[in-house]
Amino acid sequence: MSTVIQAKKLGKTSGKHQAAKSILSDIDLAIAKGEFLCVMGPSGSGKTTLLHLLAGLEKPTSGEISLGGKLFSQASSREVTRWRRDEIGQVFQFFNLMPNLTLRENVALPLAIAGKAPHEHEHRVDTLLRRLNLLERAEALPHELSGGEMQRASIARALCGEQPILLCDEPTGNLSQQAGLEVMQILQKLAKDDNKSILLVTHNPRDAAFADRVLFLVDGKLAPHAELIGPDLSVEDIHKSLASLNI
Ligand SMILES: Nc1ncnc2c1ncn2[C@@H]1O[C@H](COP(=O)(O)OP(=O)(O)OP(=O)(O)O)[C@@H](O)[C@H]1O
Ligand SMILES: [Mg+2]
Question: Fewer C-beta within 10 Å: the chain N or C terminus?
Fold first, then answer.
């Protein structure tokens, strides 16, 4: 399988000199086209920081990220901006929908950001709304939606930009068990049927069981030799790995 995004010896330190604190170190990982990768770790282990580095929102203090074979560090800020727009879609724990825009307008936002006229792409937006079972709620504002609807809208928004990579930060953290299950089934299907490359970070074993592969982040480092390979991972397998890593 072809690698879409790769990190080599990635590290992030906060603060300087004596006050320097390591947040992430020696992170080696690669995500293939159509792969659903999960990185599990407890609170504070560095999951969100890892996503921020891969999304180009923060700069690593060491190591390299390459996207489509090109190194982030050698890209101009204009290229990084373009990558962020064209290659990476993000799904957040708190949905990050614009409160004063309707669900349809929120989903179409990447078109506006890319300088495209949303009315020329109504069909694409409608298809996404239908696919995520949101068509009937299209004119509602975010505060009128359930958590599950808001998260499905944020997935639709990430798909609207047609980016091949989806970075998902605890996407079920604020959802009921049933709504969370639906979101995980959607993500699994997007990797399988649409060839999206998905990186999910979570501390939830039930969510991790949907992935093709699970890695474990402990105190800013990926646990060596602890990788679980799916498909059909069981929640019990994941609990066993967590217990053996004392997390
Ligand atoms: N900008 C920053 N400056 C200093 N420390 C930071 C910064 N961002 C994160 N940290 C610290 O780095 C560590 C990892 O944070 P991060 O948010 O990546 O963890 P996480 O695994 O996403 O946690 P959670 O599950 O609670 O979301 C934490 O100790 C946090 O306090
Ligand atoms: Mg986090």
Answer: N
